[in-house]
Amino acid sequence: MKRMSIFRPGLFKGKVAIVTGGGSGIGKAITEELVTLGCRVVIASRNEDKLKKASQEMDPKGQSVFAKVCNIRKEDQVKTLVSQTVNELGRIDYLVNNGGGQFPSPVADMSLKGWNAVVETNLTGTFLMCREVYEQWMCENGGVIVNIIADMFRGFPMMAHTGAARSAVDNLTKSLAVEWAEKGVRVNAIAPGGSIYSSTAAKNYGDVNIFERTIPGLPTKRLGTTQEVASATSFLLSPGASFISGATLRVDGGGSLYSPLIWQIPEHENLPAYKWTYSPTPEEDTAEEESSSPKAKM
Ligand code: ADE
């Protein structure tokens, strides 16, 4: 496989990263770029078959991509993933929290189970990964964390569960950047637009044309690529971003400033203007007159 990166070869030589969801979509592009730049990468997700296939494809010799099954919602599995990485690869320089999931639904139709599943994966999973990597390695040795979130800045109708969870990760990113700075840990987030095309995402949405339809609403008049998110991730992980922490970088071609939301509001008259009428009591009337008389004002 031909790999490319704008960054210099060997930039991440000798480094070790964990990329959750690193076997498909944006996570796979991030893994490929890190490996191209000399990093060894542990890719972690729940599906062993997919992980093995992806690691085999990216690294047939088994020297730089290592597949580990882990459900990031489960504390014990996260602890094991992190301890195995330290034991087997000797260090953890970078953590990329990319693994996540959601399903389109209006809030009114969401079950508590569905809501909890999305919040636990996207928010709690990210918290667990950050805390364990910090506890087991970065608090002693420093490191860099990048949280991949989403364009949820105007709310996220039809995806409110993930909007709420990603917005919380945006805030968690800022808290961690401050709490862990003294230990040499930088923490940032990347918010890719929904305009980043990946076949994995297209399959998940069950609608191959969903991406095409967004193009007119994009300032770029084209979709973004997973490589463009990978490139931004490499930058934030690199010493080129050594003074950047607690930031969220939008990789969306400006779409979050311009694209229409996918939720269409039909014509309606269900939010009429507030009708307000007020009749003062006789006592209030008198008080009003007194306070506005020249004598009372003196
Ligand atoms: N990707 C999506 N859901 C995940 C989970 N629960 N654990 C790890 N990776 C995931």
Small molecules (ligands, ions, cofactors) in the structure: adenine
Strand count = 9
Taken as a percent bin, the fraction of beta residues is 5-15%
Overall geometric form: globular
CATH superfamily: NAD(P)-binding Rossmann-like Domain
Quaternary state of this entry equals single chain
How far apart lie the N and C ends?
87 Å
CATH topology: Rossmann fold
Question: What can you tell me about this protein's structure?
Answer:
This protein has 298 residues and is of the alpha/beta class. It has one domain (2-292): Rossmann fold (3-Layer(aba) Sandwich). It has helices at residues 25-36, 48-58, 75-89, 112-141, 160-179, 199-205, 210-214, 226-237, 255-258, 282-292, 294-297, and strands at residues 16-20, 40-45, 65-69, 94-97, 143-148, 185-192, 196-197, 224-225, 248-251. Helix 1 (25-36) crosses helix 8 and helix 4 (112-141) runs parallel beside helix 5. It is globular, with a radius of gyration of 25 Å. It starts with 15 loop residues before the first strand and ends with a helix. The relative contact order is 0.12. The mean pLDDT is 94. The chain binds adenine. Adenine binds at residues 20-21, 45-46, 70-73, 99-101, 121, 125.
Compact summary:
This protein has helices at about 25-35, 50-60, 75-90, 110-140, 160-180, 200-205, 210-215, 225-235, 255-260, 280-290, 295; strands at about 15-20, 40-45, 65-70, 95, 145-150, 185-190, 195, 225, 250. It is an alpha/beta fold.
List the helices and strands and how they pair.
Blueprint: E1 16-20, H1 25-36, E2 40-45, H2 48-58, E3 65-69, H3 75-89, E4 94-97, H4 112-141, E5 143-148, H5 160-179, E6 185-192, E7 196-197, H6 199-205, H7 210-214, E8 224-225, H8 226-237, E9 248-251, H9 255-258, H10 282-292, H11 294-297
Parallel strand pairs: 1-2, 1-4, 2-3, 4-5, 5-6, 6-9, 7-8
Adenine is lined by residues 20-21, 45-46, 70-73, 99-101, 121, 125.
